Amino acid sequence: MEVPILKQGDVLIATFQAALSDADLNHLRGGLVRQVVKHRSRGVIVDVTAMDVMDSFASRTLREIAHMIRLRGAETVIVGIQPEVAFAMVQLGLTLEGVATALDLEEGLAYLIQKFKSVEQRE
Amino acid sequence: MSDGEIRVAITSDQDIVAARQSGRALAAELGFSATDSTLIATAISELARNIVSYARKGEITVKTIHGPSRQGILVIASDDGPGIPDVLQAMRDGFSTSGSLGLGLPGVRRLMDEFQIASQPGRGTIVTVKKWKQ
After folding, report:
1. Domains of chain B and any CATH numbers
2. Cβ within 8 Å of residue A57, ≥6 positions away
3. Which of A43, A87, A117, B51 could in theory staple to A112 by disulfide, Cβ–Cβ 3.0 to 4.6 A?
4. Which chain B residue has its CA at the smallest distance from A20's CA?
């Protein structure tokens, strides 16, 4: 299953579907990092609104995506974790430590823009 | 309302998705809340993943159960894989032999109401979990 990746200025937006297999997630991890390099993106939004299950493999893959992209010098924010999915993740003992999260696409974009600004101020 | 059981053969990561979708569909049919349906689907995903990671192949069975005053859902994850040499150790948080997950079984126990495991080295593992409708 293909995950659509949209380019919006400096930001890439990947929208996850409900029924992603492990192979799909692995494929996406590679694909996103390649796209970040290709477009010299500064930020990535991973929209998981449609995901109805976030198990150990999916959260580990999301963490890996965020860390790989950070090594490339860009920021990742995960948006749209559903309340019941968040509840299940906590029960299962899963954390997305070190990964930025936001309520939805709009807040995720606002977070990235803020990040870009603070980097520019430092420069 | 279906009273039958759903069996999903687990041989690849694709089957993990199929198994958890079957569980969610049955939970929804039984009138479980969205939160409980998600907990059940997540537990099935972890159990099916254990089968793929440790035993390569096995089966997930999902069925309706009837208690004295309420209905519930039963999930059986069975395989003929290598088995778990030390079940108590496997039930502790942070333990993993495949070096990847380490949360599987204790996490599944927290997601569900009842949890049973039987494992024999060289013979396989059967994990049985239940969730009752609130």
Report:
1. 5-132 (3.30.565.10)
2. A22, A25, B49, B100, B101
3. A43
4. B17
